[in-house]
Amino acid sequence: MTALSNFYHELWQQYISISPQALAIHHLFESEGEPLVNDHVAFRTFANSNISIDLLEDQILVLGYEYLDSYHFENKKLDARCYVHPDSPTKIFISELQWNTLSEVAQKIIKPIIQQITTSPVARLNAGRIWKIPTYRDYLTLLDESEYAAWLSVWGLRANHFTIFVNYLKKYPKLSEVVNLIQRHRYELNSVGGVIKGTEADLLIQSSTMADIVAVNFSDAGEQLISSCYYEFAQRFEQQDGTLYQGFVTNSADKIFESTHCGAKI
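Structure (tokenized):
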């Protein structure tokens, strides 16, 4: 097994351990005889920390990836980068929270987390949570201001989502057909900004499930049900040169982030 395939195998096993719906959907497409190709995988991290994108990037590049583009999400206080691989259709999308721009209350919760990240060499992209789990009270405080911060404080470094590359499907070659299949099997889809986000003119359209809800044990509140990970579906369109667009659309990605938000609505 190559380093790249081993990386994704480990990442997938970690992902489905807290996202059982993703495995079930994966099996659904397999039962239909569909060839499953992953369009991209996404990670979340903290800026201005020992796991910032600048420090994690080396692990991405050593796998053969090349930098493609950068993105900024003003409302969510995030910066992100996209990487592509010459021999793989799977992109890597990694974002980081500019946590020092949050409220003082949120910063007081996050700063001790940042201070615990002292690993050397830099933690692996699938290291999980490498700090003590916050209290449920602190989790809820973060959730009220930044769902991204709350999610990251509990789950740490891991795949936030995998993505079925719709272009490779045979029976369901359009995202609208994939959406219909998923809805027929009663999986809840993220409807923020519409179930299908983006247009053909954007060269990328996306849809995603709402994240699984799993039990997590907090020291001050015992087991509580919180959001884990979700599954995404992406269809790409040809650019003027005849190649598929490889990047991301900020406005659509902003809505996809809502897939881990409990009770997200239009």
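The chain is about 30% helix and 25% strand. The helical segments are 3-16, 20-31, 53-61, 104-116, 136-145, 147-155, 175-184, 250-256.
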